Amino acid sequence: MITSGLIQALLWGLAYGCIYILLATGLNIIFGVMKLVNFAHGQLLMIGAYIAFTVTTALGLNSYVAILVAMGAVALIGVGLERFTFRRVLGTDKLNEIFVSLGLIYVFENVAVLLWGNTTRQIPSPLQGMQLSLGGVSIRYDLLFAILIVVVILVALFLLLKKTKIGLAMRATSQKSTASMLMGVNIEKVYVFTFALGAALAGASGALYGIIFNFSPTIGALPTIKAFAIIIIGGLGSIPGAIIGGLLYGIAENTAVYFLGGVWQDAIAFALLIIVLLIRPTGIFGEKGE
Amino acid sequence: MQKNLIIIVVIAIVVVAGVVAGWQLMQVPSAEARKIKIGLVAGYQLAEGQDMDRAARLAVKEINDAGGVYVAEWNTNVEIELITIDTENDSPDKSLGPVTQAVEEEQVDLLIGGYTSSGTLANQKVAIDNRVPYIITGASSSLVTRRGPQANYGGLPEDSELRIDDEEGMSYMFHYCTTTADYSATVVKFFAEEMTPLLDSTYEFDASRNLRLAIIYRDDPFGRGVVADSKATIDAEELPIDVVAERSYPTDTLSFQTDLTAIKEAEPDAVYVVDFIANTAEIIKQGQADVELNTVYIAVECCEDPQFYTLLGQYGSEQLLESKFAPYAGPPYYLESIETYVTNYQAAYSTLPGMMGADTYDAFYIAADAIERAGTVDKAAVRDAIESCTLDQMLIITETSKIEFSTGTDYHEIAPVTFIEQLIWNEDVKECRSVIVYPASAEGVGTLKQADFVLPTAYEPGSP
Amino acid sequence: MKQTLINSLGSIKREIVNFSRSRKFYLILAAMAIVVILPPFLSNYVVSEVLTRILIFAIYASSWNLLASSGQGSLGHAAFLGVGGFVSALIAIKLGIPPIFALLLGSLLSAAIGVLIGLTCVRLKAWFLAMVTFGFSVIIVTIFSELDDFTGAVMGFPTPLIVDRGLPFYYMTFTIALISILAMYLVMKSKIGLAFRAIHQNELEAKMVGINTGKYRLIAFVISTFFAGLAGGLFAQSIRYIHVSVFDPYYSFLPLMMCVIGGLGTIEGPIVGSVIIVTIESYLPRIDTALNGLMGSLFPAVSNVGPPIRMLSLGLFLLAVVIFAPKGVTPLIKKAYNYLRSNVKEEKT
After folding, report:
1. Does residue A32 surpass a pLDDT of 70?
2. ipTM value
3. Do B355 and B276 touch, CB atoms closer than 8 A?
4. Could you say which of A161, B120, B406, C78 is the most buried, measured as most Cβ atoms within 10 Å of its Cβ?
5. Any idea what the CATH number is for the domain that residue C129 is in?
6. What does each C-alpha distance from C190 to B114, C180, C218 come to in angstroms?
7. What pTM did the predictor assign?
8. Residue C194 lies in a domain
């Protein structure tokens, strides 16, 4: 029963899915290389949105250029996080990473409240109010642009991982860090770069999020949950899995609402997650054994 | 060594116990003049809570600067001391502790505030048990005053735990706020009285055609309450309105296009959006931008806040907002006290006030007036004084133009007047501003209406 | 089997006798004396809202501690707190069972759900388990909210009380807390606890040594969720209301914070953590006015800088503890105490 309403739902799901993909990919890269899980990842998205908001409104920068600024700033924050917090608990009890994440969630959310207050904001876009209409379906230019930007970033990421030296080092480290150390890879440098990269992706997704949705200091929690759901379904450590998972999630979310109606959507998402994990404890595309 | 340790510890316990007991004894409330302690129950994690805080501090400052409150019992003027009771997000578990501390340790004379219905229902128990007058300025559920015997338990079933049998205690509760019944009634009456004739004349519909209303709402007691009350009013007054679509969604939803598409397929004349600021702005935006649902949207009064106007941007143009306090509908304002309040609030805080603060502001003046008329801070006397309040309306319009509780019943509510505003795009500030379009007039105010309601430019009616 | 039981009882008895001669014993005795004798002299607020809450969350944090000691760091423990609270209240109201038995039933049901969730988690690693347990708490909230006509969860309702609030409730809670924490202590000290720690250390090696990791992980879940449900029932009693807010992520993070700050894996850690956090949350808000005076102008975007600054400090404190004092604050307190004692001793000689 393909109605234009369903096609619309698919389109929106695609656009939202792209934002989740960026976030999930960042998380996945960090896990793949460092075997580290950061539950405060969604807060980096939130900070990215606020930074983009600030440079757009205070400096009058184009909101799409602001994405680059947000990426850079959040990458720097990522460097700080890696050096001062995560590095110190890497290698210790796995639970410590969870504790650090929790502390960071409190820190980020309250710093955001102090700096920007807890009113809801939106990043003004130059494309506001404009949309593309094609045979019965219409989509805002902002959403189309978001898809485009995500594709560009993912392509750039792909090139980085496959063609550059640091990308090679990252891939080597994700395979087996002791072996790559023997091969002369500076593990510390790789870790810092990886975390910064993951953070930059989170910052980009935040800047896009802020253009499409409105946001406040507490919006970080939900995207984190969705990002985790995506990478668990797609497989921890697998980037293609994250991409497919992200698209599936975005589409499923919107079409499920179309057929079922909202209230159970979170619960169903988690139920699916749990079922997947029961069958394959490392996710669909996940690495076997650990 | 161990023996010495035990002896030291035992002595320490006795000493500490003695000190604490002695300190407790010294906490007898003095019969001498002292500051009046009023506790503000507000959730500081919420923007509304902060608005209440600012409004409260403004009111307290104004009252104190004007000389304070004259208490006949002490034959002197005393100041009001504002005690902040931070309930964080105003949920029951977070609000009980702070309110208990304020009532039992700080020994506040009076409580003002309460934002969420569930939080207030939980924390008002402390005030009821301790006989502390509580002017509840939030909480859209009327149960906060009606759960006692004097209101026949507000219709609660016989086995409901929410019932309170303490009639005396419940008499200390005052509800200075609008309820979901109040404002949903105004919305549906507006549709029946103003919009239906306009549609009929503009599109040459048959006079027997009912208005096609769609409701999109957040799935929680607030949303469901508004929907239920709206329908109840439509039935009770036999209004010419058909509810052609109802869509609800989880409160943390970000994308509403699918629900809006379903509503579009039902071909409504108007869409009633029941949610708070962030989601309502999103819905109105997504409805027009993504779904091309070019109808007229109406938002509930909790959206009457600077954030809402900013977030809506141009998408708010010609849309509707039900409200009880309109800092954006002027100058010139429909009530002089509004102009004064807005000016002073802006001067003090560099931001415009929201609607939660308005009730709170008034409540402090009600409290000060009551204490003066009672001549004492004795809580029972103050309660009686609030009950017999006849102040002129301040920031909230009432049906009688006076602030009156106990309108013929023993539970304390007011009869507020809510109105409908239409948002007009203002090129100078690059945001919408509002004008009142309904009702035409109100007691003590005279003409309330500032402009006629017009259908939005891109408006498409529902099916004929 | 019978012989092992007699042996372990005997060894416990010997341990108790040895312990009673140690310094620690007198310390604990003194602490208990304070906790038992002092309350009648304190204000109602301190007893009801602060001390009782410390006890309840000590049980709750200890339950989380026990689960974490087996390497299973749950991020959804609030589900059990809520189940315990709701079930005990609903059973007492709808079935007319005396609240004290309803409390027990609530805990049992919480443990039953714990078994189900534990079963899905037996094969999961730390992060997945964290996500899944969090996911379950979301599912349980949704169930309670959707069945609102039956549970009354969304608006909430007052809970039927076992005893009057104030001192009676305090002593009842104290007794329950004593028994609960003692029980958990005995489990942690026993062979079962040893298995937990082995699994936490290295699950693969534990398996190789012959430990049935699945069985022990499940046992940890059952015991932990039973006491979490018990704490939930008591919590519903202490705030005299039950509402969906009890399922908030805040209550899932709370036992975690208490254990980390107090000292993960130890028996006193969760108790110390509970004391610290409940005291901070009850009394620190009083500095808000001072904070606003000092720093209000630095942050014009907020009208009351108190709450965000306090929460920020809590986050930083947590980070500091995890990074610099991974064993929690208790060892630091012990060190300080020893330092003072040795100084005093030196002065004497």
Report:
1. yes
2. 0.86
3. no
4. B120
5. 1.10.3470
6. 50, 15, 16
7. 0.88
8. yes
